[in-house]
Amino acid sequence: MERTSDSLPPAADAAPVLDLRGVHKSFGRGAHRVDAVRGVDLTVHRGDVVALLGHNGAGKSVTLDMALGLQAPASGEVRVCGDRPSRAVSAGRVGAMLQSGALLDDLRVAETVRAVASLHPGGRRRVGSVMDRAGLTPLATRRVSRCSGGEKQRLRFALALLPDPDLMVLDEPTAGMDVSARQEFWEVVSAEAQAGRTIVFATHYLAEAEEYAPRTVLMAGGRVIADDTTEAVRSRVPGRVLTCTTPDAGRLAQQLAGEPDVVDVRTPTPDRLEMRVTDSDRFARLALTEWRATGLQIVPLGLDEAFAELTREATDPHGGTDSDQSTPPARPEPAATAA
User: Fold this and answer.
1) From edge to edge, which strands make up the β-sheet containing 262-269?
2) What homologous superfamily does CATH list for 18-235+315-324?
3) DSSP E strands: which ranges in 137-248?
4) Among 42, 200, 246, 258, which residue carries the largest CB count within 10 Å?
5) Bridge-based pairing state of the strands 49-53 and 75-80
6) What is the pTM of this model?
7) What sequence ranges are listed for the domain ABC transporter (predicted)?
8) Contact 209/203 with Cβ under 8 angstroms?
């Protein structure tokens, strides 16, 4: 039976959709060697939605390249749907949106989808469904050159859906989009995720991971430094953020800077105090009883604070973090399934 986003079948076997074991990848030699990926273990099961986070140079894109068969690991093993990545891609079990890969501006949207569909077995009969799911049917006759950035990303997503893949790999899929376009794009992706499609996406937008990914994998210096539910990753960094308005903000900031329960304190405006604390109840009482504070707010740490703290703690043995590393060589041209 033809698969649709409404009904994905159970896995043909018990193998994870994506499985990396002890994977290493380096570029160059001697003094010019860059260790881009260092002993990564990552297992993704059917129906998982996983956000892959990290600064530039953390190893995210190289890891995804190996999952797609675009790069071979120096050591370790990569399996996709129980097979070698290249074979899984050739079999149409993987669809991808990469940072590279241009569209033909002179073609119309529907022409582009039909052209790529012809490369996949059964692809032509999926054209209408894929365009509907990606919200492209109203744009069918529009030339690609006339599409907005968000519309082009939805087109790339539609092309990645054409092989009806088990796994979708999205590398920075909303880079360059405005807020409205990002929201529209994630509505499309979320529909596939809710239907059971396995999705792994790399992003710089931490709010996207927080909102759309039940699981977050954080990379730094080519290593996985956190892999858990997004809520658990956020909770690994203790404390809450307390903010209030007080005429004594400057004096209090200097006084509180040495307190053991104060992780960070600053004054964004002369009368506004913002603190990250491990004992929010105590400081809330002080704010209300001694600091003449108004507008008191206490909120949990967001994923962005956890990301910054965990990445800062993950300095590599050579004294630098992943952001210090050179950029690895450019990707080879992706296969047709990697839209």
Assistant:
1) 262-269, 272-277, 240-245, 294-300
2) P-loop containing nucleotide triphosphate hydrolases (3.40.50.300)
3) 167-171, 198-202, 215-220, 223-229, 240-245
4) 200
5) unpaired
6) 0.75
7) 18-246
8) yes
122, two tokens: 């059964």
CA distance 136 to 150: 11
Angle at 226 between CA 222 and CA 231, to 5 degrees: 145
Measured in degrees and rounded to the nearest 5, phi and psi for residue 205 equal -90, 100
* Cα–Cα distance measured from residue 16 to residue 47, given in angstroms and rounded to the nearest whole number: 10
pLDDT in tens, 164-218: 999 999 988 887 788 888 888 888 888 888 888 999 999 878 888 888 999 999 9
Residues of the chain with CATH 3.40.50.300: 18-235+315-324
The pLDDT tens digits for 304-314 are 777 777 877 77
Report the pLDDT value the prediction gives residue 100, as an integer from 0 to 100: 67
